[in-house]
């Protein structure tokens, strides 16, 4: 793995029990880039995240992250190495304040002392523009702010690689623009970001590299607009969307 590469999947097979979902998946991501992942429903995008954070262990192949072979490393150790994820459906502790939610991630997720955890949590809240709302109960937040909180909680673990799972889903166009600005700020702050999304325009405008997955493998990867305009992608992805 060259030092520019933060993440690589090499011929990975993985799934749930006997059901194999990832099927010889290979790709490589550069440090500091926003790497988009698209593909039809059920093609294995979230499963790829699950394999990346250590929720499921590959039956074949290798996952290398930041100079480490993490193929069989457990989830807690990967979190400590700097892999932080968000979930498709935000699930904060509703009764806790915004700040407390991020503090919990920082202290219990990343193992920071309370003092360091507070510092990291406040930085995460500033980066996600939630600082002014830090005392509000998480259950009272709008969907956009819940998405921000989901990202802040991931940042609370001090990741180098941030995994975003459909953070734009369910938002208005104006809100999606806010998310795109936030992702651009996170990139500028030095995070490497891997971003699953169905909102195609977002992917074209906000990512440096785009991969389209199909049936658990890498169908096409490249410059976002080229990937989106390719016939191959149109057939497996847009074709499926239109039929739904
Ligand atoms: N815990 C699980 N146990 C068994 N099968 C699962 C589990 N989670 C997901 N699957 C199956 O794995 C396949 C891939 O799902 P996955 O969520 O990775 O797809 P996806 O590309 O993220 O889809 P979407 O765009 O709809 O979120 C689907 O057929 C799904 O039903």
TrEMBL record:
InterPro entries: AAA+_ATPase, ABC_AA/LPS_Transport, ABC_transporter-like_ATP-bd, P-loop_NTPase. Pfam families: ABC_tran. GO terms for molecular function: ATP binding; ATP hydrolysis activity; L-isoleucine transmembrane transporter activity; L-phenylalanine transmembrane transporter activity; L-valine transmembrane transporter activity. GO terms for cellular component: plasma membrane. It comes from the Bacteria. This is ATP-binding cassette domain-containing protein. Residues 7-240 form the ABC transporter domain. Transmembrane segments: none annotated. One of its GO terms (biological process) is L-isoleucine import across plasma membrane. Keywords: ATP-binding, Nucleotide-binding, Transport.
């Amino acid at each position: 793995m060259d030092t520019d590469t933060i993440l690589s999947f090499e011929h990975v097979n993985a799934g749930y029990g006997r059901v194999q979902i990832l099927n010889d998946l290979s790709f490589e991501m550069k440090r500091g880039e926003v790497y988009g992942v698209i593909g039809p429903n059920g093609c294995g995008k979230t499963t790829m995240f699950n394999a990346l954070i250590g929720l499921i262990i590959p039956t074949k192949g290798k996952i290398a992250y930041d100079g480490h072979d993490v193929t069989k490393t457990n989830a807690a150790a990967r979190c400590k190495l700097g892999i932080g994820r968000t979930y498709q459906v935000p699930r904060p502790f509703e009764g806790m304040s915004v700040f407390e939610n991020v503090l919990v991630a920082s202290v219990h997720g990343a193992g920071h002392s309370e003092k360091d955890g507070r510092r990291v949590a406040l930085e995460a809240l500033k980066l996600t523009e939630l600082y002014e709302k830090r005392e509000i109960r998480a259950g009272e937040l709008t969907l956009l702010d819940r998405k921000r909180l989901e990202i802040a909680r991931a940042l609370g673990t001090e990741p180098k690689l941030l995994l975003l799972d459909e953070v734009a889903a369910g938002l208005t166009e104006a809100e999606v623009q806010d998310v795109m600005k936030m992702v651009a700020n996170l990139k500028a702050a030095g995070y490497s970001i891997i971003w699953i999304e169905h909102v195609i325009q977002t992917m074209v405008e906000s990512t440096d590299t785009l991969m389209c997955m199909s049936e658990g493998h890498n169908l096409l990867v490249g410059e976002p607009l080229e990937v989106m305009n390719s016939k191959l992608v149109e057939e497996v992805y847009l074709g499926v969307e239109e039929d739904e």
